[in-house]
Specification:
Keywords: Apoptosis, Cell cycle, Cell division, Chromatin regulator, Cytoplasm, DNA damage, DNA repair, Mitosis, Nucleus, Repeat, Ubl conjugation pathway
Family: Belongs to the BABAM2 family.
GO biological process, one term: mitotic G2 DNA damage checkpoint signaling
Shape: elongated
Radius of gyration: 29 Å
Largest sheet: 5 strands, antiparallel
InterPro entries: BRE
Number of strands: 14
Number of helices: 9
Oligomer: single chain
Function: May play a role in homeostasis or cellular differentiation in cells of neural, epithelial and germline origins. May also act as a death receptor-associated anti-apoptotic protein, which inhibits the mitochondrial apoptotic pathway.
């Protein structure tokens, strides 16, 4: 086992070296590479043949290593098929020597059919369920941690599929809980987020217990990159220390409340962006070159003051409406070092408390005043 840290991507294994009856199982596994809660994918490594006389063109590798993200760590398992007996089910050897695959209890293994290409995927999922049961049995040896685990089921909508547990053999190594937060705040977020999200786009909480005789823990929140950007959060986010001192269930409830608040704020910001665009596009409807129809982050207009034409780009900051939209004036006549002459302005009359109509009026007034200065500066490049 090793910690599941962010690592450079390994080169994908060349599955063409696998024996044909093995290859089709691996193809399905790699096509659906998520087993368990972690957002990371299963990896297939080190394909090898049973016999040393290996030539690539023979494509007879029948054993390989699988790396499975589990509870914030990486569990390794050697999968051994038989090239001489394609109809035989594979054997499994885990890196965790305390765990032996209960072959006679794995239903998908007992009913193995080499012609069903999803067989290996189903077997691995079932094996990992037995592995989790083994970890829960190990947890029973520690009263405080077992109590924390059982208390989680008091949370609304929480069930066994929402947690992975790892109890390392070394007593000095922290016990890990990887928890899928049961509250679903996605319905609060904008429509585009719901359309793009999938069933795996949920927050995860990794909880580490350094002392097995205490319920004191460290927490780390995992969000998808898309959710981080939308909520304005990153993986260093922590609740206040006084919350950390509570039971884990209380921490999770407080964290869910915080996520819900962040989601409501994100939805409110998005609605304000949409209103801003509606107001400005309605006013400048004949001048629109392009605009961001999904995130409402920027629009480009071509405007005229007397006989002077110019391009105006309006960029809304991530913290809009608190942050002031940037106005970028671009020349269509002159360039500097190959780029159009441009001036960005963000210190003009603006307040997040104004109505959209007042924001539009004040912005238009500023544009009409500032364009005279921009025209003079643009003329200096003649």
């Amino acid at each position: 086992m090793e910690e599941d840290k962010e690592k450079p991507k390994r080169e994908k294994v060349d599955i063409s070296v696998l024996a044909p009856h093995v290859r089709k199982h691996v193809e399905v596994l790699l096509d659906q590479p998520i087993i368990g809660l972690c957002h990371r994918e299963v990896e297939v490594l080190n394909p090898k043949p049973s016999f040393p006389s290996y030539e690539k063109e023979n494509s007879n590798c029948d054993r390989f290593q699988i790396v499975i993200p589990y509870a914030g760590m990486r569990i390794e398992c050697m999968v051994v098929f038989q090239s001489s007996g394609p109809e035989c089910p594979p054997d499994f050897v885990f890196s965790d020597s305390r765990f032996f695959v209960p072959i006679d209890q794995i239903e998908t293994l007992c009913s193995w059919d080499v012609h069903k290409s999803d067989g290996l995927l189903k077997v691995m999922k079932e094996i990992m369920q037995f592995y989790k049961k083994k970890q829960i049995q190990e947890l029973d040896r520690y009263e405080h941690l077992s109590f924390e685990y059982l208390c989680l089921f008091q949370l609304q909508n929480f069930n066994e599929d929402d947690i992975e547990i790892l109890v390392p053999s070394d007593p000095e190594t922290p016990v890990l809980f990887l928890i899928r937060l049961p509250a679903d705040f996605r319905h609060i977020l904008p429509d585009f987020y719901q359309e793009e999200s999938d069933l795996r786009d949920f927050p995860l909480l990794l909880v580490s217990f350094p002392n097995r005789d205490s319920s004191r823990s460290c927490q780390r929140l995992y969000l998808t990159k898309k959710t981080q950007l939308l909520l304005g959060m990153d993986e260093s986010f922590q609740l206040p220390d006084e919350v950390n001192d509570n039971y884990l269930t209380r921490y999770i409830i407080a964290l869910e409340d915080e996520l819900k608040t962040k989601a409501e704020m994100a939805a409110s910001r998005y609605e304000r962006r949409r209103m801003y665009f509606t107001q400005f596009l309605s006013h400048f409807y004949r001048c629109v070159v392009e605009y961001d129809v999904l995130y409402f982050s920027s629009m480009t207009l071509i405007l005229r003051e007397d006989d002077f034409h110019f391009i105006l780009e309006i960029n809304l900051p991530d913290d809009f409406p608190m942050g002031t939209p940037a106005l970028v004036f671009r020349s269509i006549y002159h360039s500097f070092m190959g780029d159009p002459v441009a001036v960005a302005v963000d210190n003009y009359p603006y307040s997040p408390t104004w109505s959209m109509q007042k924001i539009l009026d004040e912005t238009v007034k500023f544009i009409e005043e500032y364009v005279h200065l921009f025209r003079q500066d643009d003329g200096s490049y003649c």
